[in-house]
Structure to design on (425 residues):
């Protein structure tokens, strides 16, 4: 057997049997170092391991050659550890034998197995390949990938919906990169971060002398994104007074700079907007124009929260650990630590996962992040994560704090003056 020596584990746990849909086949979604794939489960016992002789080969040095077995019995799947070195985990519990249900996530080594019921279509008939630049290859994210590729072919507006921290900007960038506008600019604008009195100037530009402080002419985001994509994050916070101008630009008419008396210019820009807020509710409350809402929601891509794609957590965590390694050092999760992460609900989604990994990596005494490090990080009992705060993260914290600079600096765990410098203030 191969892999690292794991931490002490609790006794075995048996989970409740939940039946698959009547007559529905079982499929297991495997994510390991080689990528993601789906395997249909037949009635016989299937061996899972790193050996080439295994029925389901997992490419992961922390997985034993004979790690666990999967057996379909009636309407359930029995998961049984086969004497592995690093253990088989369901949620955060190390098990000897367990019953799987639809959506059950099993962690072996640094890889995951997710059980799906009633989805017996062959690999080629299901969702396509994951998107480049977005970690995780779950069924849910492959469906998003298929939608992105389909919608990338035209220039109509797209609204990306999803909870805060799910990676909506990454999906917007993928829409741009997959389409014919990829050679032109991608211009991201966080509407919430714009001073209310400067929103129109930032989007549409201004003439010299249009208002106090307008010492020179400015083109604006629409001009910067000419021929490309303009991404408007948190579109629900766009001031009502700026909404008619955006609607006019989306309808293919013109973009006119603030203070301009001449004719405007036609905008050759694809607008992609994102929101975590229910725009229909904002419309009902009078805070968002109904006609603009319907113009934006012709096509909607919904990014699923992390708790609905737990099989992606290992892949996402690996990417995040590489990103923060310059600040906290090279780190890897132990199998038990990864299992603990997959068991968490992640109300803050990928953004919360990044913060937890920052704290856990900073607190770890070795290159291995242990379960105790994760537990402390989840409980915020670890050192400051200030060294992991980037300018983009600082802007997110400022928005999440309602524009309160002191509160955002406290959330970042750093002095107010240092936080201001990150924001460029």
């Amino acid at each position: 057997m191969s892999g690292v020596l794991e931490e002490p584990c609790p006794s075995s746990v048996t989970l409740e049997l939940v039946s698959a849909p009547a007559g529905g086949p079982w499929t297991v979604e495997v994510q390991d170092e080689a990528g993601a794939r789906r395997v249909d489960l037949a009635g016989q016992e299937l061996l899972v391991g790193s050996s080439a002789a295994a029925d389901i080969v997992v490419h992961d040095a922390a997985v034993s050659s004979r790690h666990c077995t999967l057996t379909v019995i009636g309407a359930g799947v029995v998961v049984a550890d086969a004497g592995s070195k690093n253990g088989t985990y369901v949620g955060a519990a190390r098990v000897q034998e367990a019953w799987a249900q639809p959506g059950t996530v099993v962690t072996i080594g640094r890889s995951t197995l997710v059980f799906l019921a009633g989805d017996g279509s062959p690999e080629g008939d299901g969702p396509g390949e994951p998107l480049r630049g977005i970690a995780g290859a779950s069924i849910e994210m492959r469906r998003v990938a298929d939608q992105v590729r389909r919608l990338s072919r035209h220039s109509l507006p797209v609204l990306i919906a999803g909870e805060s921290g799910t990676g909506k900007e990454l999906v917007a960038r993928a829409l741009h990169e997959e389409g014919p506008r990829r050679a032109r600019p991608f211009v991201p604008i966080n509407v919430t971060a714009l001073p209310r009195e400067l929103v129109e100037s930032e989007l549409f530009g201004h003439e010299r002398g249009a208002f106090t402080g307008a010492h020179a002419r400015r083109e604006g985001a629409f001009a910067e994104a000419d021929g490309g994509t303009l991404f408007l994050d948190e579109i629900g916070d766009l001031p009502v007074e700026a909404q008619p101008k955006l609607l006019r630009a989306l309808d293919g008419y013109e973009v006119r700079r603030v203070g301009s008396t001449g004719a405007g210019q036609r905008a050759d820009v694809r607008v992609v907007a994102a929101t975590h807020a229910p725009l229909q509710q904002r419309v009902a409350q009078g805070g968002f124009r109904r006609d603009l809402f319907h113009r934006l929601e012709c096509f909607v891509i919904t990014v699923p929260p992390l708790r609905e794609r737990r099989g992606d957590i290992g892949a996402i965590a690996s990417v995040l650990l590489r990103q923060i390694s310059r600040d906290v050092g090279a780190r890897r999760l132990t199998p038990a630590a990864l299992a603990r992460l997959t068991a968490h609900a992640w109300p803050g989604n990928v953004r919360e996962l990044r913060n937890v990994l920052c704290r856990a990596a900073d607190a770890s005494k070795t290159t291995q992040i242990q379960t105790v490090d994760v537990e402390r990080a989840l409980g915020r009992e670890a050192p400051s994560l200030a060294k992991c705060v980037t300018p983009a993260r600082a802007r997110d914290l400022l928005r999440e704090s309602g524009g309160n600079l002191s509160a955002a600096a406290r959330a970042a765990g750093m002095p107010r003056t240092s936080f201001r410098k990150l924001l460029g203030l």
Observations:
- The longest strand covers residues 26-32.
- The chain is about 30% helix and 20% strand.
- The chain has a mean pLDDT of 82.
- The CA atoms of residues 328 and 362 lie 5 Å apart.
